[in-house]
């Protein structure tokens, strides 16, 4: 006598996702699809994956730039597992997303087991100096040390050395240098203050997040995705934060401001001119960027559109408001429900973010 086959259980996350996909896309065949998933398990189809990636962006509570979510260009790389081939596809991602400066939001989705270990495809190295200062972007100290432990010899030693990317596939991890023509950068100058240009600062055109998984109905896939920058991300945080490039004192000096007394508001004046410099420099270079007034207004249009579609918008207010003049933007005056919806992107801890152990060289 043979035992009756146990009926496979239907994964509830997969079922909820498929129900949403078929309802929102008005697709027939939900019952047959659920039956197939019950029998064989859930592997998203290319169409389900594309829908999930776009809705994950729509659901990203920290993102103020969600208005164009439906135009996300989805590249299904689940057939690619060789690290060198993954690297080649990511370099193509950089070229295609840059689009001569027009910047197109794009996502590359990897097979299970494939992952980029860098938090973004383009990151600047951090070199600790003997006097305790850091050359480069201090936020990448541990990333740089990690890449060195994988065999990276180090770069030229400038404050803007682009790091190689570490690609993991199964048990292999390999390093790849990004070709210079894949990394477009904008030199930062100011139309009225040549002293700001004399600082020799630049930033890369594309933010490509690579440390978040796309959660599709409980299936978590590593991915890399980009939009375009809001200038505040560069000018009010990356270049200005005291634990990043810390440029406000040098910008204030370039503007001839009195930095001995806080009440001159030299920090604020330097900050505003640095924001102007980034916006004008990107415009002069023909690279798409958005200012915080425009993007927050676009966000209110996104909210209105979502309401018309019968959906709510969730958000994390502290991330949606810009770090410069927040109360001049419409988002300041609104309140948001910060609960997370699926599909969504979920941050994956970095290998060097392991729990703190006494004697760990990275802590
Ligand atoms: N804030 C991050 C950075 O400065 C980028 C985050 C994503 N930003 C975006 N505009 N898509 O690099």
From TrEMBL:
The keyword DNA-binding does not apply. Heme binds at residue 63. This is Nitric oxide synthase oxygenase. It comes from Deinococcus metalli. Keywords: Heme, Iron, Metal-binding, Oxidoreductase. It catalyses: 3 reduced [flavodoxin] + 2 L-arginine + 4 O2 = 3 oxidized [flavodoxin] + 2 L-citrulline + 2 nitric oxide + 4 H2O + 5 H(+). Belongs to the NOS family. Bacterial NOS oxygenase subfamily. The lineage of its organism: Bacteria, Thermotogati, Deinococcota, Deinococci, Deinococcales. SUPFAM superfamilies: Nitric oxide (NO) synthase oxygenase domain. GO terms for molecular function: heme binding; metal ion binding; nitric-oxide synthase activity. Homodimer. One of its GO terms (biological process) is nitric oxide biosynthetic process. It comes from the Bacteria. Catalyzes the production of nitric oxide.
């Amino acid at each position: 006598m043979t035992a009756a086959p146990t009926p496979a259980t239907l994964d509830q996350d997969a079922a909820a996702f498929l129900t949403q996909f078929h309802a929102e896309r008005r697709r027939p065949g939900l019952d047959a699809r659920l039956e197939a998933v019950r029998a064989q398990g859930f592997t998203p189809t290319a169409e389900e994956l594309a829908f999930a990636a776009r809705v994950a962006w729509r659901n990203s509570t920290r993102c103020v730039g969600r208005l164009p979510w439906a135009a996300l260009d989805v590249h299904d790389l689940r057939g690619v597992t060789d690290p060198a081939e993954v690297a080649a596809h990511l370099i193509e991602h950089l070229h295609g997303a840059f689009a001569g400066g027009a910047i197109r939001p794009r996502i590359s989705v990897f097979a299970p087991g494939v992952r980029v270990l860098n938090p973004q495809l383009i990151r600047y190295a951090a070199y600790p100096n003997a006097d305790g200062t850091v050359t480069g972007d201090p936020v990448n100290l541990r990333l740089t040390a990690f890449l060195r432990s994988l065999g990276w010899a180090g770069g030229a030693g400038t404050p803007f050395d682009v790091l190689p990317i570490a690609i993991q596939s199964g048990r292999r991890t390999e390093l790849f240098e990004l070709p210079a023509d894949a990394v477009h950068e904008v030199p930062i100058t100011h139309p009225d203050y040549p002293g700001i240009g004399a600082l020799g600062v630049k930033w890369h055109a594309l933010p490509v997040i690579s440390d978040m998984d796309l959660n599709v109905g409980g299936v978590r896939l590593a991915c890399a995705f980009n939009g375009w920058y809001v200038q505040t991300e560069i000018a009010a945080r990356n270049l200005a934060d005291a634990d990043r490039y810390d440029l406000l004192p040098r910008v204030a000096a370039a503007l001839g401001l009195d930095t001995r007394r806080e009440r001159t508001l030299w920090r604020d004046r330097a900050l505003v001119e640095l924001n102007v410099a980034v916006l004008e420099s990107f415009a002069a270079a023909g690279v798409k960027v958005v200012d915080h007034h425009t993007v927050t207004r676009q966000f209110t249009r996104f909210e209105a559109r979502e309401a018309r579609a019968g959906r709510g918008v969730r958000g994390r207010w502290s991330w949606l408001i810009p770090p410069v003049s927040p109360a001049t933007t419409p988002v300041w005056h609104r309140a948001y429900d910060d609960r997370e919806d699926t599909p969504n992107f979920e941050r994956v801890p970095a290998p060097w973010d392991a729990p703190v152990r006494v004697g760990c060289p990275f802590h």
